Amino acid sequence: MRRVHALAGLLLVAMVTTSAGMKSYLGHHVLSAQAMSEEQLQVLQNLEHQFDVLFLREPTPRLSTDIVVSPEDLNQVMTIMREAGMAASILCSDLQSHIDRERAEIAFSRRKRIMGSSMDYSVYRTIDEVNAVMKGWENSYPQLVKMKALEHKTHESRTVYYLEIGTALDSNGNSNKPVIFVESLTHAREWITTASLIYVIDTLLKNFHNTKFESALTDFTWVVIPVVNPDGYDFTWTQNRFWRKNLRFYSSQRHCLGVDVNRNYDIKFGTVGVSPNCTSDIHHGLSPFSEPETQNVRDLFLQFKARIVSFLSVHAFSQLLLHPWSYTTPNTSTEVPDNLQQLKIMGNKMIQALAYNGKLYRMGTAYDLVGYAASGGSIDWALAEKPGIYSYCFELRPQSFWQGGFMIPATEIIPTGQELLNSLMTMIQNL
User: Mind listing the pLDDT tens digit for each residue in 186-213?
Assistant: First the structure.
C-alpha cells in the first residue's frame, strides 16, 4: 500500500511539473457579449489584433461571444465595447482558477485509478495515453482493430495514427464494406471529442456480440483518426490549455505559431471566416493542404474514397450538428449540396438520437445556426470530393462556457459519449 501511495504522489508531482511551464490565465476575465450589427461584429473581431484576447467562441451575429481578456487590457476592452453600444457581462474573473480546478480533478482521477478504483473512460488522456489505448485495442481485439501510422509527420515530428475497425467480411462474406470515416481533435483544446470517441469505440468493441452493435462492425468498416492534431493537443497539456491550432512555426519576432487545421482544406480556401494573420486563431495557412494534419486526412480519405459513405468531424462545443456548406451565406451564395434534402433528413434523425440524455442539439449549416461562415473546412472538402456522402460536423457538449466550455468536467465524458454513440448508430441504421 505504501508503494501505491508513493506512485500516486509521484504522479501528482509530475502533474504539477507538467503544468509549471504553462501560460497563466491568472486574473484573466471571461466576458460575454453579442454583436447586434455588422459594425459591432467588426469591433469584436478587431479586438484580436489590438489586445491580448482569446475568443472561446468566434464573434457571430447570432450567438454571444465569450472573450478571454488579460487584466492589463480589461478596462480598455470594456471601454471599446461600451462605446460601440455593446453590453458585456463578466462570466469569470479569474480563468486560471478554472484551469487549476481541472488540473486537480485530473490528478485526483489518476490517483484513484492507480489505487485500484476503476474510472472507466471518465478521464482525459494525454496523447501518449491515447496512442496506448489504441494499441491496447489492437492487442485485445486483433480480429476487429488495426492501428496504422499515417505518412505525414507533424511539425513536432510526431506520428499520427488511425484505426481500421470492423470484421474483415460482412454478413454476406463481402470484404468491400462501406466505410464510415471519423476524424477528431482537429482543434487542440477540444478534449471532450477524443475522450467521447474513445468511449464510443470501446463500447462497440466490448459489445461486439450484442445484437444492438454487431452490425456496426460487421456491415461497416470504421476508419478513425482519434487525434488529428497531436502537436496542438500535447501543447494544451504542457503550455497553453486554450491552444486551438497546430504548431507550425513562422517567426519568433511576430509570435506567429500555428495554423487552424480546419481552415486549411482545399475548398474555397482563404475566402471567408479565416485570417491571413498568423497570430490569429483562424489563420488558414500558406496554401491549401500546406499542413501535415490536413495532408493526412486527405490521403486517408482518398485511400478509402470509393467505399466512403459518411465523413464525420467531431468538435466541441455548442451542441450542434453542422452539415455543408459551411462557407456560404445568403449574401454570398445560393449554392447548396446536391444531397441537401438527404443531409437534412438524416441530420434530423441524428439530433433526435443526440437527445439520448435529454440534451438539445440543433442541426443546420454554420451560418444557419450561428450566423458564421468559414471556408477550408473538412466536411465541405469531403462532400465536394465525393458528392452524395453524409458529411457532418458534431459540436458536442456543452452549450456554453458556464457549463464547462472547453474544460467540461471528465464526468461528462460518458454521457457525451452515449449521445455520440446513439447518433452514430441511428445514422448507420438509416444508411
Answer: 999 999 999 999 999 999 999 999 999 9
- Work out the average pLDDT over 252-261: 83
What pLDDT band is residue 294 in, cutting at 50, 70 and 90? very high
User: Could you write out the three-class secondary structure of the chain?
Assistant: CHHHHHHHHHHHHHHHHHHHCCCCCCCCEEEEECCCCHHHHHHHHHHHHHCCEEECCCCCCCCCEEEEECCCCHHHHHHHHHHCCCCCEEEECCHHHHHHHHHHHHHHHHHHHHCCCCCCCCCCCCHHHHHHHHHHHHHHCCCCEEEEECCCCCCCCCCCEEEEECCCCCCCCCCCCCEEEEEECCCCCCHHHHHHHHHHHHHHHHCCCCHHHHHHHHCCEEEEECCCCHHHHHHHHHCCCCCCCCCCEEECCCCEECCCHHHCCCCCCCCCCCECCCCCCCECCCCCCCCHHHHHHHHHHHHHHHHEEEEEEEEECCCEEECCCCCCCCCCCCCCCCCHHHHHHHHHHHHHHHHHHCCCCEEECHHHHHCCCCCCCHHHHHHHHCCCCEEEEEEECCCCHHHCHHHCCHHHHHHHHHHHHHHHHHHHHCC
Active-site hit among 48, 291, 385, 395: 395
pTM: 0.92
Give the pLDDT score at 167: 95
Q: Is 293 a known active-site residue?
A: no
Q: What average pLDDT is seen over the chain? A: 91
